[in-house]
Amino acid sequence: MGAPTRSSRIRVTSTNESLLQASSLGFSGVRTATARLEYRRTLPADASVVVDVIVGSTRPGRHGEAVARWVLEQASTRSDVKFELVDLLDHPLPHLDEPLPASAGQYAGEHTRRWSETIDRFDGYVFVTPEYNNATSGALKNAIDYLYREWNNKAAGFVGYGVVGAARAVEHLRLIAAELQLATVRGQVALSFYTDFENSTVLRPEPRQIDALGELLDQVVAWSNALAVVRQG
Ligand SMILES: Cc1cc2nc3c(=O)[nH]c(=O)nc-3n(C[C@H](O)[C@H](O)[C@H](O)COP(=O)(O)O)c2cc1C
After folding, report:
1. Tell me: domain 46-231, CATH 3.40.50.360, correct?
2. Tell me: the pLDDT tens digits for 122-155?
3. 57 C-beta closer than 6 A to ligand 1
């Protein structure tokens, strides 16, 4: 059995008090405000969201792992959130081999069930993506396609790297995320081999990239918290 899921740690209840406060916002605001108020009330004091940093490349000699470790290092100074690394190399998935679409949630393969358990327990994701021929990697796209509900109503941010920052790969991922009901934040990191890698090989991000990453993480954490409430229904 995997670690406790976020949903098992958060209890959302309705009370007359919160409904009364929320009702002052008008009909459309009631549900949102109620959820927000109750969320604050029922979160344990030591609760924090858990965000996954996904290494999106698998090839020998990849730069993806160094980029993901830099993200984790920068994120480790935060007390409001726990970050964990998930490496696609630890989850070898064949080209999608499930007979049913992921939205059916019935997985035939043990590799799929294991991947599902891994992804399901996170509240948000930071995708570390290379750019291969103007898109993300085939390995990452394949891994995403294996699942559906596990991605729903969660937050995602993107750290791209490549010759020109992998902006096209990230745009593709934003389209994919829309179909998965995965909310993508505006903040983005675009690491370029021209400016953020010494001799195009060793990662040395410019100082402005640290600010960009901080902004991205702020947004992912905020939306991860907010969407944990949405997942309570
Ligand atoms: C098959 C392939 C296609 C690539 N296409 C692009 C590209 O379209 N744009 C770009 O900026 N870099 C491109 N690159 C360079 C990669 O972004 C760069 O090699 C990066 O380090 C790949 O990530 P990885 O090292 O984690 O595999 C390509 C590299 C490969 C191997």
Report:
1. yes
2. 999 999 999 999 999 999 999 999 999 999 999 9
3. yes
